[in-house]
Amino acid sequence: NTQTQNYTSANNLRETRSQANQRKNNNVDSNRAIHEPWQWYDKCYNRERNAGLFAADQLPRKNKFQYSAAIHTRQNPNGNRRGYECPEERDHYPYWHPTPWRDIAILTDNTTMCSYHR
To answer: How far apart are CA 26 and CA 106, in angstroms?
Structure first.
């Protein structure tokens, strides 16, 4: 994780766009690779996790705003970060929240759903 981009969460949920841009500029290092945008992880950190998703015996932690965010999942209860990837989106497909990602292929033996995915 020595080459992971930095991330600093907002001080409050009423942050201005200017304050968010300042955090982003302080976090993103142009000498390091980015796969997901900083804004995507920031939204993930600030979005309450989908409590309807299976959590097994895990108790996902709370963020600094005292709710369990989308960065905390059954597979990632501590909210460990891998770049700017949103753990809840990664661990639960299809994702329940709007996402910028689009499927380029769906591999299946069941062709009855092909018209749905077109």
So the answer is: 38
